[in-house]
Design a protein that fits this description.
α9 packs across α11. The chain is α/β, with parallel strands linked by helices. The relative contact order is 0.17. A 6-stranded parallel beta sheet has the order 3-2-4-1-5-6, with helices on both faces. The termini are close together. It has 13 helices and 6 strands. It is globular.
Amino acid sequence: MAGELWFLTGCTAVGKTALSLELARFLDAEILSCDAVQVYRGADISSAKIKSEEMAGIAHYGLDLCDPSETFDVGQYGEYARSIVERVHKKNKALLIVGGAGFYLKSFFVKVIDDIPVPEPVRAEVRLFHEQFGLAALQRAVEGYGPVDLNASDWHNPRRLINILAKQRVTGWAQRTLKQKFLQNGDPFHSFHRKVILLERHPESLDGRIRARVEDMFRNGLREEVQSLGALCPPLARAIGYREVRAYLDSAEKMPEEELKESIVGATRRLAKKQRTWFRRQIPIDYSINLDAYSSNESFDFIATFCRNNRV
């Protein structure tokens, strides 16, 4: 059992949390949240954070790690996750990683950030360069260091190019060299037995679940929660639910509540679509199941059978 990392993932509102408790009991596992919003204290409602009374005595990690005003990124998550993996491994227990945050999840399979320290003055200087001279100048500056190996999306992404150029100014390396050295970093958890379970649903079913979740968010006090959180760090301020409600609260002319809800439903639906593509392309899926095709008991039996047949 030691050395087992199980992953339960799927797009938002698919039903990961409820199933994770049953699966953790079956595996004798503890649970690590893989959610980029649940790390913030007080950001409970829009992130559908599990309550302590719902944990059924199962240890949960990855929740309430920082204040809403503090930025928490994938690098910090990776360090935290390594400490939890080591802690649970020493207990001779399995760890069940639950969530759908793409880069957080990917960090268990490949290194997603490099170790090149960039002083803030250098990063600020590159940002100012982009503001003054634009994207084309940023692209020429990156090319000036040597060969470039970027897809079209990254090549036209200012944030991505700013990050690259800042590292180039520190190292003097071409972007292709930066990429090659990054890929040599390797697999951070290669010695662990890892299996990924992907939960899916029919589009119309998922849409209904998204709408029901948004209704629950407002019923449980999403607007009041956003007001109480105060100033938010950029990642949390961009999170679905918090972004729309903050804009609503700051607006002089308030839209009807149903329109506000619909904006959150639409944003969540678009996120779910992106997540489905991401999981299939970026994460090594070992087993997938459409929860709408079976009863809840049948779905769990299929998942349990897969786990039983793939333990170390």
